[in-house]
Amino acid sequence: MGWAVAVAVLLSASPTFVTRGDVTPEADLRREAQAAWASLEARYAAQAGGLPTRAPATVTLQKGTALAPERNAQGRPGVVELRQNTPGVLDARLRTALRHELAHQLLWWACPASSEDRLFHEAFALTVSGELPAWREAPYQSLSRAAKEVASAPAVDTPRARKGLARILGEHVGFPAALTRRLRQCHDGTRWASNLSVEELADVAVLAPEAATVVVSRHSGEVLFAEGNVRRAVPYGSALKPFLYAAGTVASTRDVSPPLLAPRPGVQEWACGAGLPPKVDARLALLRSCNGYFLDWEATGRAPQAFGVWGPVLTAVGLTGLPADMTEAIGLRSAHGLSPWGMAQAYRLLAEARPEVLALLTGNVEEGTLSGLSTSKALKGVATKTGTVRDAASRPQFGWIAAVDEDLVLVAVRPGKMPRHFVDEVPALLTRVRKQAAGLEAARVQVLGLLPSASVEARCAGAGFALEDGAPRPAPTDFSRLDALTAKGPAVCLGSPWRVRFPQGPDGGRDYAGVFTWSPPPPYRPPPGVPTTPSALKARRGSDFVFRTTRVQYTAGVVAAEDVTLQGEARVALSRVVAHNERHAAPRHPGRAICDTTHCQAFRGTVRLRPEDTRALKLPPLRWDVWLTFSQGGATPWREFRSRAQVEGLLGTRLVSLRFESGRLRYLRTEGEAGAPYEDARSLPCDTLRAGLQLPSCPQRASFDGPRVLFEGQGRGHGEGLDVEAAKAATGLSS
Description:
Elements: E1 4-5, E2 17-19, H1 26-48, E3 59-63, E4 73-76, E5 79-82, H2 92-110, H3 118-128, H4 132-136, H5 143-152, H6 159-169, H7 177-188, H8 198-202, E6 212-217, E7 223-227, H9 241-248, H10 282-288, H11 291-299, H12 311-316, H13 326-329, H14 340-353, H15 355-361, H16 364-367, E8 383-390, E9 396-404, E10 408-415, H17 425-436, E11 442-447, E12 457-460, E13 463-468, E14 471-474, E15 480-481, H18 482-485, E16 491-494, E17 498-501, E18 510-512, E19 515-518, H19 534-541, E20 545-550, H20 551-562, H21 568-582, E21 594-595, H22 611-618, E22 630-631, E23 633-643, H23 644-651, E24 655-661, E25 664-673, E26 676-685, H24 686-693, E27 701-705, E28 708-716, E29 722-723, H25 724-729
Parallel strand pairs: 2-3, 3-5, 11-21, 22-29
Antiparallel strand pairs: 1-2, 4-5, 6-7, 6-10, 8-9, 9-10, 11-20, 12-15, 12-17, 13-14, 13-16, 16-19, 17-18, 19-20, 23-28, 24-25, 25-26, 27-28
Helix pairs in contact: 1-2, 2-3, 3-6, 5-6, 14-15, 20-21, 21-22
InterPro entries: Beta-lactam/transpept-like (IPR012338)
């Protein structure tokens, strides 16, 4: 029958359904699809609070030619493939499969942010397709067993996983609350920072406890170490109390800062160590983890609700729901959960926004919940917070430790243990991560200085926040001006690098895994008598943006900018020079961070690390105490012309000769009156001419050719220090 297109639609938001004649009868199939779409659309709108304003795309309905035996249908955006066992018959099995696949099509249209969340997609499709009753007729399955089946097949693409998912969905009366929350996120345009978890869907922790550890860089945000299921949300106990403290002490609410409260003898929640003073402040309550203080603070009516300004942060990194009251916020009731990964991301932002809160938490090993232990001295100077989740018999279900030092954020969760019983693992884990990696300390670089600041835009694919007076403000989900993001404090992207773009930049932009701040440099005055081009003036001035990442990420970014093909010992050699210069950059911009142009070392964002990058930074530091130069070098000859006007614009008029020796340009100019001329000999660093005329390298020869000057040379770069091309050719040598 060829292609046939449905012309009647039930709603303006319905897609056009196209059939190919291989599933029949076509008209009935299209009518079935339109009716199913209208029903699904109504369910979605009722839970999400509305529908997108844009029209959905065309959906093609066709016969599946490669369906697995257990599948009745499958799809991808814009296409649904169906199994039809009997031509001309649209049986109940096919209609159900069609509704299921159209539910996915609806989400791809209405909620594109959830496209990679398979559990959310399948849970929604099972709920709205009408197939749940059939799954519920299967033999009984425990909730924990069902959760294990779903966890073992995260794509939820097996019959056992779908049966388990149906069992979890069967816990709910009506539409699952977790799906409603997520659908409203879709409609509100909220970022999809973490995928739906089994715990969030079931509203309870149903999986057996498992140990998990994650270590994140404070500077780049990258996950440096992960062990166990670090993305699984579990109850958090007292581990989020620092966010209550931070919410209650933001600059805008200092007039209602946390009160001094008297302990109540005999009240279990106030049993937080001996020797409490007559009045307890929020600092001591935080270190001792005094539940009674936080409950009584809430009773004053002045405590932050739902973590205050930090609620959106915790939600963005995967908190399964905001607390209804203080008992849920401090973990006395385990109504919600957070993953170790999400906890680490939140503490990374807290460390950036409120360093004084982290400084307070360093006292935990001296007078808080981790004091008096043999490990306490090993954690001196490290900010720590503990949390314990207990069952009805007060036995520990989970123990949490969050630890933050100058470079790393560590979060460890241990089942059946109190934090004091596994805190000795923390210093060993921090040491282990530093030995496995290298260059984890901070590196700062002035970036994008050759561009107008207003032309630079950034976007965070994870959860982006701009900090203002210690309070986090969610960044726009789309590209926005970087100067606006950093106007009042650092800009931090959780779970992803910043993507930065600018006019005439690379398509799609560049990745910057780290933290941006706004820091205009002082005015730059070039040395008298030294020719300086406008571009050179910009480079030597520096940038309004300072970017912080790890030293190894900075080093790898510079090497990639200089020579992306470099590998082996030559890459190790250049990496060692780059890392050395980052620590000896004072002469380039006194009192400022190193810059990202060839005036310092080219840097065009962070890149994927190679083994040589880490190996280079594990080697001993170079012995010199000065800036080390390098260039691409090589022996490839080149010839380039520049107009005489260009050359004289840089060096002055009435040029007589140009010659090059020992890295310097020596030239003669005619001076004096017409009747008494004389030749004036002058000298400049050869690189001044190379940079000013944008020549491949320092020339070896120059000759005048009428209105033009011919320059000849070989290789690339200023020709001083390490010759990268020569290093590449010197196989068999160590770095």
